Amino acid sequence: MDRKTVERWLSAGRVPHQRHRLAVARLLGEDDLFLWPETATSQRAESASQAEFVALYPNRGSVSIDTWASLIDNATEAIDVLAFAGSFLHDAIPEFDERITSAARRGAQVRLLFGDPEGDAVERRGAEERIGDLLSARCRLTWNYLQSVLGTPGLSARQHNTTLYASIFRFDETLLANPHTYGAAASQSPVLHLRRLPGGRLFTTYMKSFDRAWEQATGVTAD
Predict the structure, then answer these.
(1) What are phi and psi for residue 118, nearest 5 degrees?
(2) Which of 16, 65, 23, 59 is nearest to 181 (CA)?
(3) Residue 129: closest CA among 185, 181, 72, 208
(4) Which H/E stretch holds residue 138?
(5) Region 180-197: what's the mean pLDDT?
(6) Percentage of the chain modeled with pLDDT above 70
(7) pLDDT for 43
(8) What share of the chain is helix, strand, coil (3-state, %, to 5)?
(9) C-alpha distances out from residue 30 to 4, 44, 161, 201, 219, Å
(10) What are the pLDDT digits (tens) for 46-87?
């Protein structure tokens, strides 16, 4: 292929012809639908998306601590966390900071995205949950806890001022999405357990949301 044609696939969102898609997929050892999910038929995409769905938990507490710990400890490529405070990570998961720094040191890209304690989004969410400044205080506590890991190679952290419709916890090809319910704490809302599959759209939809929040957030470094 002409180099400029390939560059347009990457930078301009151009979709190659099928024979070229299949050739690239063979070279990269991936399914062509994983590389170009927009080429899936609606029926195939619906079927793949349903297959991505692993389990539904009625609330966040229903996800066992062993599950959280195992997902962190087994991640080798990426850990992405998007929440306001995510206090349970430090409160409930033993040695959370040590686990995520270990993941970063073994090559996983770790991105931590927590709320700006002074931001409008945190203030609004605190009011909706009727806990006032408590959510802001929790965000400050989370950032205080994270001081010891900021600066770890492979680990990045940012503060967001985003209206969250779901907290997102991604570990390689597994994603736990915790949709927010108006007026209720995230811990009281259900959790969707997803596993990325070629052609599926659920995992990709949530990760696009994460990436948009990440792009708008502000980098944080150790004091």
Answers:
(1) -95, 5
(2) 59
(3) 185
(4) helix 134-146
(5) 93
(6) 95
(7) 61
(8) 50, 20, 35
(9) 23, 17, 36, 16, 33
(10) 666 788 999 999 999 999 999 999 999 999 999 999 999 999
pTM, entire model: 0.80
Q: How far apart are the first and last CA of the chain?
A: 50
Q: What does DSSP say about strands 155-160 and 166-171: parallel, antiparallel, or unpaired? A: unpaired
Q: How many residues does the chain have?
A: 223
Q: What are phi and psi of 96, to 5 degrees?
A: -55, -50
The residues near 32 (Cβ < 8 Å, ≥ 6 apart) are: 18, 21, 22, 24, 25, 39, 198
For residue 53, what are the β-bridge partners?
194
- The DSSP H or E segment spanning 177 is strand 174-179
Give how far Cα 221 sits from Cα of 79, 90, 152, Å: 18, 19, 10
Residue range 149-174: average pLDDT? Answer: 96
How many alpha carbons fall within 13 Å on the CB side of residue 4? 0
Q: Which distant-in-sequence residues (6+ apart) come within 8 Å of 2 by Cβ?
A: none
What's CA 215's distance to the chain center, in Å? 13
Three-class SS of residue 194?
Answer: strand
Element (H, E) at 193: strand 191-195
pLDDT band of residue 36 (cuts 50, 70, 90) is confident
